[in-house]
Amino acid sequence: xxxxxxxxxxxxxxxxxxxxxxxxxxxxxxxxxxxxxxxxxxxxxxxxxxxxxxxxxxxxxxxxxxxxxxxxxxxxxxxxxxxxxxxxxxxxxxxxxxxxxxxxxxxxxxxxxxxxxxxxxxxxxxxxxxxxxxxxxxxxxxxxxxxxxxxxxxxxxxxxxxxxxxxxxxxxxxxxxxxxxxxxxxxxxxxxxx
Length: 194
Ligand code: CA
Prior knowledge:
Elements: E1 12-16, H1 20-33, E2 36-40, H2 43-53, E3 57-61, H3 69-78, E4 85-89, H4 94-102, E5 107-110, H5 115-124, E6 142-145, E7 148-151, E8 156-159, E9 162-164, H6 168-179, H7 187-193
Parallel strand pairs: 1-2, 1-3, 3-4, 4-5
Antiparallel strand pairs: 6-7, 7-8, 8-9
Helix pairs in contact: 2-3
This protein binds calcium ion.
Calcium ion is lined by residues 18-19, 61, 63-64.
């Protein structure tokens, strides 16, 4: 989809986690891997930090002392901020996963996690924000797969350059499938999302 940054040092991550041991583990490991990392302990401070530092990706704990991770994501999306969000959730709960994705999150990692899994998930999330630090966060609203192009903001689909008329449900379904390329989605996941 989009290209990976060659230089992780220009890729800013924000770790939002109220549990000190997990926060420290994530912060130090990600920093050692070469990322630029900052951290927040609450939902409110996460929102402030996102505004201030414009991270390229947010690792967001779901259970926080104030706003939960879903709420934080909903507020970001409502404000037009499209920063990718990787949820850290303590429960292996399909409802949580769906809730996370429908609140505007990109992926979930279940705790306890292996740090390698977190690193892989970070690499797997499409880079849809600007890599240069000084530029503003720009949302990529066009999803592409082969010759299909779906423009989320214009609510239009083109195939090989030709406009494809779709019902709202068909549009949502296609958007959901395009947002999860190569993943096996269950019927329940799709129905709950669309
Ligand atoms: Ca927590």
